[in-house]
Design brief:
heterodimer; A: mainly alpha; B: mainly alpha; 12 helices; 60% helix
């Protein structure tokens, strides 16, 4: 009975995590993917295939950058792949607490509570700074910016 | 003002125990010798009157740009020490109030790399404010802060961590530098997206070392902490910030959003502090920074 409830609670967490925005550029580890896999494990839910594919990509990219470590090797050889995810200690209380926090994050509770004005978002020293950053990130960091604007930054230091 | 609603207490309310991340090496900072704090960092230094008068005379005669000079003493020194002290710790030493939040409550590993991550988070918050200063002044403050940061890391690596080889230190410094670029970019992305979800991923990747078993309550506490600091930085005027009147709010304290009347009051108090009634101020107190914004 209780394991069923844990499953339901974990499902709520997973569906909330699925609504999280996708990373603009590819990182070695992704909060969204790793947590979806984690809570699927805890609740005994099947991991969505799209996430599973991404997770595999994650794992291969981190492995190529980490050093060889005897303990790590032992863990990988003698245990299940999802060994790093702790499962046993989760109770309904803990999971509902986690859900509450995740919901606050998803709703940008603190961003709204401590609202800042345009002074910081369009700084007078660098009015275009954030626009240019987001513009580049939205292209996935793949497309280089124009020759002239790049030189303007080099010469004046301004964005 | 300690409050039950502070980020520190919020994080403590979580019923999930701290789990050790098996992917993080347990290497506490075990210094061969601890760097001594310089005199001007330990206590408030008071100059003799004649030295003050001489200083004022030099500034006045040579028409020195005080905003430029202040970038070194405030941006490079005072603000850097503030960032550094948030999470500085050594093996077998009692943690400071702020360090206890990061290491005991959040359960982060007590390592040099972790200290770097927490310090750069605080430096980034100052960067956000410095960008909003006039371009020339803000850039100078940022440059001085980064210069001091890397000089200090170099010193700590050689003296405390006992890395004698200059080549290895340079390699580490380059690594720290590229980490800094990544962290600042991802936190800036989060600020510009105006979303806590993006900020959560950035903090999870950097401060929490991408821990798979993260306690989300604690992640939320850090987000709240960051937003709280940014709010204070938003409300402080250029002049007060440039003169070093900003302090980070302790994680054990909380800030309530200001009402419009309180914002007016704050502006009035700042004006009274930095502008004399008869319009005369000392040459060293001159500044082009705005009192209103």
């Amino acid at each position: 009975m209780s394991s069923n409830k844990i499953g339901q609670e974990a499902k709520k967490l997973v569906s909330l995590l699925e609504k999280f925005p996708k990373d603009r550029i590819q990182h070695n580890a992704t909060f969204k993917t790793s947590q979806i896999i984690r809570f699927c494990n805890i609740g005994g839910i099947a991991v969505p295939t799209s996430v599973l594919k991404e997770g595999r990509k994650d794992a291969s990219s981190t492995k190529s950058t980490t050093k060889i470590d005897a303990n790590e090797n032992k863990r990988n050889t003698f245990s299940d792949k999802d060994d790093a995810y702790q499962k046993d200690l989760f109770t309904i209380d803990i999971l509902s607490q986690q859900f509450k926090s995740l919901k606050n994050i998803a709703n940008s509770k603190w961003e709204k509570y401590y609202q800042i004005d345009n002074k910081l978002l369009e700084p007078k020293g660098n009015p275009n700074y954030y626009n240019r950053l987001l513009g580049d990130l939205d292209k996935g960091g793949k497309q280089k910016e124009g020759f002239l604007t790049a030189w303007r930054t080099i010469l004046t230091g301004k964005y | 003002m300690a409050s039950s609603e502070s980020p520190h207490n919020y994080a403590k309310q979580s019923s999930m125990p701290n789990l050790v991340n098996p992917e993080i090496p347990k290497k506490d900072v075990n210094p061969k010798q601890i760097l001594e704090k310089p005199l001007y960092e330990r206590a408030i230094v008071r100059l003799p009157e004649w030295q003050k008068a001489l200083g004022e005379a030099i500034v006045s005669i040579f028409h020195m740009d005080m905003d430029r000079i202040r970038a070194g003493s405030i941006g490079g020194s005072k603000y850097y020490y503030m960032c550094k002290d948030q999470s500085l710790q050594y093996k077998n030493e009692v943690l400071s109030e702020t360090a206890a939040f990061w290491y005991s409550t959040l359960g982060l590993p007590r390592t040099f790399a972790q200290w770097y991550q927490i310090t750069i988070l605080h430096i980034w918050m100052l960067f956000v404010r410095m960008r909003a200063l006039p371009f020339k002044v803000g850039k100078n403050y940022q440059q001085k802060l980064v210069d001091k940061f890397f000089k200090d890391i170099d010193m700590r690596l050689s003296e405390e961590m006992d890395i004698r080889s200059g080549t290895i230190r340079t390699r580490y410094l380059k690594d720290f530098h590229s980490q800094m670029i990544g962290i600042v970019a991802s936190l800036d992305e989060a600020l510009a997206s105006q979303s806590d979800a993006v900020l959560a991923s950035a903090i999870w990747r950097n401060v929490f070392n991408g821990d798979k078993n993260i306690d989300i309550v604690k992640l939320e506490a850090v987000i709240r902490y960051v937003r709280m600091q940014l709010y204070v930085l938003d409300k402080i005027s250029d002049r007060a910030f440039g003169f070093g009147d900003f302090e980070f709010v302790s994680p054990a304290e909380t800030v309530d959003p200001l009402t419009p009347e309180e914002v007016q009051q704050l502006r009035k108090v700042t004006k009274e502090k930095y502008e004399s009634i008869d319009g005369k101020i000392l040459p060293s107190q001159h500044s082009s920074l705005s009192l209103d914004e």
